[in-house]
Amino acid sequence: MSSPRRKFNDRLASRLVQVGFLAAVLLLWYLATTRWGVNKLLLPNPLKVWDQLADVIAKGEYLNDLRITLTELGVAFLISTVGGTLLGYAISRSPYLIKVFEPLFAGIYSIPIILFLPLYVLFFGLGPASKIALGTTISFFPVVLSTIAGFGNVDRVLVTAAKSMGASDYHLFRYVLVPAALPVILSGLRMGFTIALLSIIGSETIASLGGLGHRIVNLAENMDMARMFAYIVFAIAIAAFLNTAVSVLEARGKRQR
């Protein structure tokens, strides 16, 4: 079997497994609400959730909440990307700075920063600013660590060869350092984007004035469980779409380096 054919079959098999898993979850969910006596206040019927989801989309009531969440995500990820890559590159130029800051940033990254959400709310308020600050902080560390690793581990033979051929600092950066470091940096950016999205939606469920997480909590407090689950499904779909888009961009960037 040729390599392209094998790759196609592998992708097809992966998609079938994913679809089968999703179908099994939906089936178990349906049986739990119709045959196994699970309280509908805890787990509404998936068909009713689907009806509520269709109503939410038809009325467009999600637009303002989605706008708030995506704005928070976009600003947070932009700040962490620019700050993380610039600082990571500056640190990667010195072996001493790498030894000092890489373990320091890795140690901070291991701390569940969302525990400090009350402090962010205290400093920035309940509005989008606190979510942006939290998302920026959490996504900053995978970005800066991947940038340090990417630029810091470039094969020195490539650098020496480029310099021996008279490459300027710009050409060395553009044609040697960036292509060599890009796969690692892109992986860090994807990780930073994903955890920024998760942290922002999670923080919206705890302390916020708007956003998808805030809407979900309000519906739960009003015991409108079917509509709450509809918003949860909607948020999961948005997160999956964004993560897939970022993964596609990552793969494309690696191919074009």
Give the helix proportion (percent range): over 70%
Q: What structural class results from the helix and strand content?
A: mainly alpha
The number of helical elements comes to 10
The biggest beta sheet is recorded as: none
What value does the Rg take, in angstroms?
23 Å
Q: Give the overall shape, derived from the CA principal axes.
A: globular
Beta content: under 5%
Separation of the first and last Cα atoms: 29 Å
Helix and strand string, N-terminal first? HHHHHHHHHH
In short:
The chain is mainly alpha-helical and 257 residues long.
Description:
By secondary structure, the chain is mostly helical. Helices cover 82% and strands 0% of the residues. It is built from ten helices and no strands. Helix 2 crosses helix 10 (225-255), helix 3 packs antiparallel against helix 8 and helix 5 crosses helix 6. The longest helix is centred in the C-terminal third of the chain and has 38 residues, at 169-206. The protein starts with a helix and ends with a helix. The model has no long low-confidence stretch (mean pLDDT 88).
Key words describing this protein structure:
257 residues; mainly alpha; 82% helix; globular
